[in-house]
Write a structure and sequence with these properties.
- The complex is a heterodimer.
- Helices cover 24% and strands 19% of the residues of chain A.
- Chain A is an alpha/beta fold.
- Among the domains of chain A are: 187 residues, Barwin-like endoglucanases, CATH 2.40.40; 183 residues, Rossmann fold; 160 residues, Dimethylsulfoxide Reductase, domain 2 (3-Layer(aba) Sandwich).
- In chain A, the strands form twelve sheets. An eight-stranded mixed β-sheet of chain A has the order 6-5-19-18-17-7-8-16. An eight-stranded mixed β-sheet of chain A has the order 23-29-25-26-24-27-22-28.
- Chain A is globular, with a radius of gyration of 29 Å.
- Chain B has a domain of 165 residues.
- In chain B, helix 5 crosses helix 6.
- Chain B is extended and about 95 Å long.
- Chain B starts with 9 loop residues before the first helix and ends with a helix.
- The chains are: A alpha/beta, B mainly alpha.
Chain lengths: 1126, 255
């Protein structure tokens, strides 16, 4: 590989180009970047440059000898295999036909409803459950990747006592000995401590309540390192009692997010993402104001037969109902990136911002605010006016990491605006927190240190790793005479405890869990416990000596005892036959009548009492955030999530200290902060800094992130784990400090009194905070600009401005709805034609239009083949209802860049994980890239972030097909660009000729053939590819062919919506639609009829079947720096 | 410089040069032949089985329908090998002491599957689906041969891609009425007891002959064509078998 350049790139604030860029190297036009994009396969990608170690050499030699002797080689296409039928086949199983079961994927105690696919008894794929209120069919990347945790080869496989194998029975006898006397009576004086994360499961909560009642000295510590207490404590201040807050974004015309990433993090984010996106999808037949806010029904929508087709067509909204999002935050999030107005403000000033806003809104008794920067001050008046104008139709939402005083203030603002009860709904708390029994981790640790704890029972909380640095939990475990750990891994906490019992995965056990609004889901096992683990409820049943020990019976008996359950769920329906109620609950995955009951407690007069003095801006601020892919560290051994490019930063496998360019300069970091090795490599050389905070130090790579607030740095939790497993341990790939683990541990500098943010500085006394540059450099694997579509014309030495993401504002849309159809290269000519040729006189009544592009013939497609029929009807042998044109549309206005689709695709299509080093070489295998573009100059307030999912667009004129020498990629009759792996010889010409750069080559044997547990999780309907073949998005052809077979068998057409691709099904915001273009009223045809529909690089005449709907933002003209349209 | 080879070797050199194309061609032909040989394809092979199950006895002599055991053939990609329970349905009553059936009884008693050796061993990258073939009128016998005459099951077809494609190009050559799918002896030329051509039955059509408009298929009760050519073309139309372009798309079988 070429040595890394040390040449200093030009300064950033050179002339701002209008084009969209992905990385700073691209922005400044670094030589290495331009060289890299000329080369289809970056330097290092095509060569085998790995050092050959002796072990590897022996391995290779062994393989060659095996080949030479013919061992392991079989002449026939398939080696001889066995068939093992069932001895007694279960009734519901048909070999070869997948089944779906409802369950709920837990995260920090809250569940998202999921449907799990089971192939012959093996769970293989997670999808959202459309009937669950937290999902509505979507799923986030954590839920989607949780299936890999089930098959994690590093899971704990047995019970251990002081490290030696033992059994569950012995473990339960041991703990019962501690808690119960010989007569089986509880020892009342035992100071039992239970440590868990948030618990919402009604069954587990009831068990815990009973245990706490039996042992008066027992306490329950709840520890969630990635979730703040802001909402619970804030509502307690505001209403005198803790309440759960849910939002109805479908009714919100204006949304103000105060440091809340509500579309991608926290309970309910999947639901909120969909609700929010509903108001961002502009449709000609979308909802009107009356549809959204109630009012008279539109009578004209009935068709000739008197049927009301509203339920079919009323997706999205009319353009005038587009919502508006204001975001105030420090670290750029997905939500902030899709905002109409985003204010980069240090987190510590967010409360002052809210207080100033509250005063402007006319709220009395607001505590004093600290001085705000001018940019923030300019926001207050227009923002307050907008909120007042939309009173009752707006939402103000604050992030959980913000303090209780801000949440109380936000409650006051929502009350003042009349949003409470309309768009902001309060209901009884979802979490189980028996009064007087709950303590926090800090108190627990202090008790442990004081030897006040007799027995400690830990329920899958890795507190030894996630405790703040001033809470020496790990050290104090040894001070407890009896320690018992239930968990899925032998993690940092497990090894310090005397007993460890391996816990079941949620796909292996019965359980129940509540969603963000309190709705209860039943979790049902999809497979018998792989390692004979126990679930928490089974363990408690064993400990308390309950008569019922089976998870199934425990959960059932809780719900069977309906009178008891009705104390928590007053609207639980009365049932005559329990079995009917139960079967329906298991089938649907949701228990009816457990949804939220609106609580209309008025705002307490004392909501502003004890509000802390507003924090003034300091020299520097530090933020702690849960990682966007590996969360609080629990997913550190999940390869899919580790390799998933983080939604905004596009970094994989690592965390970093994020800061803005100005902050980097201030901190004395090299202004030329990257010495690029070329963006295409994904190998970014960055400075290593020493971050000192309150006397503790970590060594970390620094990353300059456009749009980060100045005077603030952000670190992500979850990395730097010592005992996570093989994915996390990295011999040969040390972290910035030289340790063989991934990333740095941000918990090592986090303190319990300021867990989320703190203002500090070099001379701030207790809050000393400094970032010092070291001489070391570090390589981060960052996929920004990898497989870039940037193309430089070699003949005229000009880089084409492709404008991959087309966007505009509402004003532009109103003036010219089809603005996105203008190819940027022909923008001038198109504008001239539009001005000089009169617009067509004839108009349409909206949805009746079927010809595709509208009658405005002034805008011709750039194609020689005007006759579209050529492409539709080249299979004359087919009956009309068998002629299908599969197509996809992605509404960029709804996409938040959350990357759930990438994980869904990886799970569905058996895409391997390649590892950090391979990512840096440009060999990542993801079929979907979520491109994150910037438009504008870095450091500008108006810098736009634009997301664009990019996968194979299934060109009708596919450039890849004509160059394949072996015909491995060819077109199918229904318009798919087929990829036949077993025919591919790996010339890579196709990728070379692909203008979208969406083909991925298996350079090495990335697939793990050895770990037997991973084999269970693969999708049997998709080939597992090995080395040397090209692969790419197939539009989930296995699902298409599967649905086709069923439809053909039943002699009917394929219904619209019958086939959901993996990405479409997962997408929380519902931004992806797939279907048959020949079906006039299919959703995909309707989307493609929208004027904002455009084809990516369509000017190349590739005729992409996947098209995008342009972004239409809705800026407030009264706001400062209102960005202009295209 | 002295010559390395004596002049006397020239004829030999000429022979070698001239025979090179012949060697190359015969190598090619040889490889192609080998690729198609029964040695490489396994056609005609009869793998040993843990239980000497005889289709000839069960199908040929007893007349059990294929779908009694292979229950999922109409609804799934895989035509399942029956669970032990299916064997035991009968063999708890008859031949319940036979030595031959000891592995079956052991499997049932110990709840351990019988390990059959796969006869039709398709490579993993080819996704064959039984249900669609059965629904479109491809009989069992077309691929599996006359099982009613096989004692131990023998691989009847080469399973080479060219063998698959041949039928995907001209499906009409192998189509038969749905009610005759499992028949081992069906021929379009077979006449009924009254020496007249057999007539179309309701069970020959999807939804028992009910057309989308609610009417009955007019063919029902009419005589069937008696040549495969006529019958195949008619069935191709009736069963909406797609055209050869579509049927030979790569992604039909490879995903």
């Amino acid at each position: 590989m070429k040595p890394d350049s040390t040449e200093t790139p030009p300064p950033l604030n050179s002339s701002a180009p209008s084009q969209q860029w992905q990385g700073l190297d691209e922005y400044v036009g670094s030589k290495e970047f331009l060289e890299a994009v000329q080369n289809e396969f970056p330097e290092g990608a095509s060569e085998f440059t790995d050092e050959v170690s002796r072990r590897r050499f022996v391995g290779l030699m062994g393989a060659s000898i095996a080949l030479a002797t013919g061992a392991g080689c079989y002449l026939r296409p398939a080696p001889p295999r066995k068939i093992l039928p069932y001895t007694t086949q279960p009734d519901e199983i048909t070999p070869g036909v997948a089944l779906y079961f409802a369950s709920a994927s837990p995260l920090s105690g809250y569940g998202t409803g999921v449907l799990v696919r089971s192939n012959e008894g093996r769970p293989t794929k997670i999808e959202g459950n459309p009937s669950h209120p937290s999902s509505l069919g979507g799923a986030d990347s954590f839920a989607l990747a949780s299936i890999l945790d089930l098959y994690d080869p590093d899971r704990s496989t047995g019970v251990t006592h002081r490290g030696s194998p033992s059994s569950v029975e012995e473990a339960i006898i041991a703990i019962r000995k501690q808690l119960y006397d010989e007569a089986g009576q509880p020892k009342k004086a035992v100071r039992l401590r239970i440590l868990s994360e948030t618990v919402t499961s009604p069954t587990l909560a009831a068990q815990l309540a009973k245990l706490l009642a039996d042992f008066p000295e027992a306490r329950w510590a709840q520890h969630d390192p990635a979730v703040g207490d802001g909402v619970r404590e804030g509502t307690t201040k505001a209403f005198g009692k803790p309440l759960n807050v849910t939002y109805d974004f479908t009714k919100a015309d204006v949304v103000l997010s105060l440091d809340a990433d509500f579309t991608t993090s926290g309970p309910g984010s999947t639901r909120y993402s969909r609700d929010f996106a509903e108001r961002r999808k502009i449709r000609k037949t979308g909802k009107t104001a009356a549809d959204i806010h109630g009012g008279k029904k539109d009578e004209a929508k009935k068709d000739d037969h008197g049927h009301d087709h509203d339920h079919d067509h009323k997706e999205g909204v009319q353009a005038d109902q587009l919502n508006r999002l204001y975001v105030v935050e420090a670290m750029p999030t997905s939500t902030g990136s899709v905002a109409d107005h985003r204010l980069a403000l240090p987190t510590s000033l967010v409360e002052s911002f809210a207080r100033t806003l509250a005063v402007e809104l006319g709220i009395a008794g607001v505590p004093g605010a600290a001085a705000l920067p001018d940019a923030a001050k300019a926001w207050i008046k227009p923002l307050a006016d907008d909120l007042k104008a939309k009173a009752g139709k707006s939402v103000v939402v604050a992030g959980t990491q913000q303090p209780a005083s801000l949440h109380a203030l936000v409650a006051a603002i929502n009350a003042k605006l009349g949003n409470a009860g309309k768009t902001v709904i309060y209901s009884a708390p979802v979490e189980a927190r028996p009064a007087g029994k709950v303590i926090d981790l800090k108190t627990l640790t202090k008790e442990m240190g004081d030897r006040q704890v007799d027995a400690l029972l830990i329920l899958n909380v890795n507190a030894a790793y996630t405790a703040s640095v001033d809470v020496p939990f790990a050290e104090n475990i040894k001070n407890v005479p009896f320690t018992f750990h239930l968990g899925t891994h032998q993690d940092e906490t497990a090894v310090r405890c005397q007993w460890h019992v391996n816990e079941t995965h949620y796909l292996e056990a019965w359980g129940d869990i509540r969603g963000h609004d309190g709705t209860v889901s039943l979790q049902q096992p999809l497979i018998a416990p792989l390692y004979h683990g126990k679930s928490a409820i089974e363990l408690f049943a064993g400990i308390t000596g309950a008569a019922v020990r089976e998870g199934y019976e425990i959960v059932r008996s809780f719900w069977k005892n309906a009178d008891e359950a009705r104390k928590t769920f007053p609207s639980l329906p009365k049932f005559d036959t329990f079995e009917v109620f139960w079967q329906e609950a298991v089938r649907a995955g949701v228990i009816a009548g457990t949804g939220p009951v609106s609580d209309t407690t008025p705002l307490a007069g004392t909501w502003a009492a004890d509000a802390p003095v507003a924090v003034a801006a300091g020299e520097l601020e530090i933020n702690f955030r849960a990682d966007t892919t590996i969360y609080d560290g629990r997913f550190a051994n999940n390869g899919w999530l580790q390799e998933l490019p983080k939604p905004v930063t596009k970094i994989t496998w690592d965390n970093a200290v994020f800061m803005s360019e100005a902050t980097a300069r201030k901190l004395g970091l090299d202004p030329a902060y990257f010495r690029w090795t070329g963006g295409e490599h994904g190998r970014a050389q960055v400075d290593v800094v020493e971050l000192t905070y309150r006397g503790k130090k970590v060594v970390a790579p620094a990353w300059v992130l456009p749009n980060h607030a100045d005077g603030s740095i952000t670190v992500h939790l979850g990395y730097g784990r010592e005992r996570a497993g093989r994915v996390n341990s990295t011999p040969g790939e040390p972290n910035a400090n030289g340790d063989p683990i991934r990333g740095f541990n941000a918990y090592a500098i986090r303190t319990s009194d300021a867990p989320w943010f703190a203002v500090g500085g070099k001379d701030a006394g207790k809050n000393d905070l400094s970032v010092a540059k070291t001489k070391k450099v570090y390589f981060l694997a960052c996929t920004q600009g990898q497989t870039s579509m940037v193309q430089k014309d070699l003949f005229i030495n000009h880089e084409w401005d492709r404008k991959p993401v087309r966007h505009g504002d509402l004003a532009l849309y109103t003036k010219n709805p089809a603005f996105a159809k203008i190819p940027p290269m022909a923008a001038k000519e198109t504008t001239e034609i539009n001005e000089n040729v009169p617009a067509p006189s004839h108009k349409h009544d909206g949805e009746k239009h079927e010809s595709g592009e509208g009658h405005d013939k002034r805008l011709h497609e750039l194609t020689m083949y005007y006759d579209n029929d050529k492409f539709e009807k080249f299979t004359p042998g087919l009956k009309p209802d068998q002629q299908r044109r599969w197509a996809m549309a992605i509404d960029l206005n709804a996409c938040t860049g959350c990357s759930a689709c990438v994980v869904a695709c990886q799970s569905e299509n058996n895409i391997p994980v390649v590892g950090k080093e391979q990512v840096t070489k440009g060999r990542a295998m993801h079929w979907i890239n979520i491109d994150r573009y910037y438009e504008g100059a870095p450091g500008d307030a108006g810098l736009k972030t634009l997301f664009q999912p990019r996968m194979c667009v299934q060109c009708e004129n596919a450039p890849c097909e004509i160059v394949c020498p072996v015909g491995a990629t060819v077109h199918s009759a229904d318009g798919l660009n087929d990829m036949t792996y077993n025919r591919c010889v790996g010339t890579r010409y196709c990728s070379n000729n692909c203008p979208y750069k969406v083909r991925r080559f298996n350079f090495l044997t990335f697939v793990d053939w050895d770990s037997s547990s991973l084999k269970l999780g693969r999708n049997p309907d998709v080939s597992v590819r090995s080395r040397g073949v090209m692969e790419k998005c197939t539009f989930c052809v296995q699902r298409i062919r599967g649905a086709e077979i069923v439809a053909e068998r039943e002699a009917r057409k394929i219904r619209d919506g019958e086939i959901l691709t993996a990405c479409q099904s997962a997408c929380p915001s519902g931004a992806i639609v797939f279907g048959d273009l020949n079906e006039g009223h299919s959703a995909v045809a309707r989307w493609k009829n929208e004027p904002t529909n455009y084809g990516l690089l369509a000017e190349l005449n590739t005729r992409p079947r996947l098209t995008h709907l342009a972004i239409v933002r809705n800026p407030n003209p009264a706001m400062p720096n209102t960005p202009k349209g295209v | 410089m002295p010559q390395i080879f004596p002049k006397a070797l020239n004829p030999i050199a000429r022979v070698i040069v001239l025979s090179l194309p012949i060697i190359a061609a015969s190598t090619g032909v040889g490889l192609a032949a080998f690729y198609r040989s029964s040695y490489a394809t396994g056609v005609g092979e009869t793998p040993p089985q843990p239980v000497a199950f005889s289709h000839a006895h069960h199908v040929g002599q007893l007349g059990i329908d294929c779908r009694y055991c292979h229950t999922s053939v109409e609804i799934s990609g895989s035509a399942n090998v029956p669970p032990t329970k299916t064997c035991m349905n009968c063999h708890q009553q008859i031949w319940q002491g036979a030595d031959l059936l000891e592995p079956v009884r052991a499997s049932y008693k110990n709840n351990t599957p019988i390990e059959w050796n796969r006869v039709y061993n398709l490579p993993h990258y080819a996704y064959f689906n039984h249900s669609i073939h059965v629904a479109k009128g491809v009989g069992c016998v077309s691929c599996h041969g006359q099982l009613d005459q096989q004692n131990l099951t023998t691989q009847h077809s080469t399973l080479l891609m060219e063998w698959c494609i041949k039928c995907h190009r001209e499906p009409e050559k192998n189509l038969r009425p749905r009610s005759e799918i499992t028949s081992m002896t069906y021929s379009p030329a077979t006449l009924g007891a009254d020496q007249k051509p057999l007539t179309w039955k309701k069970s020959d059509f999807a939804n028992f002959g009910k057309l989308p408009d609610g009417k009955e298929n007019p063919l029902i009760g009419q005589p069937r064509p008696t040549t495969q050519k006529e019958l195949g073309l008619l069935l191709k139309e009736e069963y909406k078998v797609r055209d050869n372009v579509t049927l030979t798309n790569c992604s039909m079988c490879h995903r």
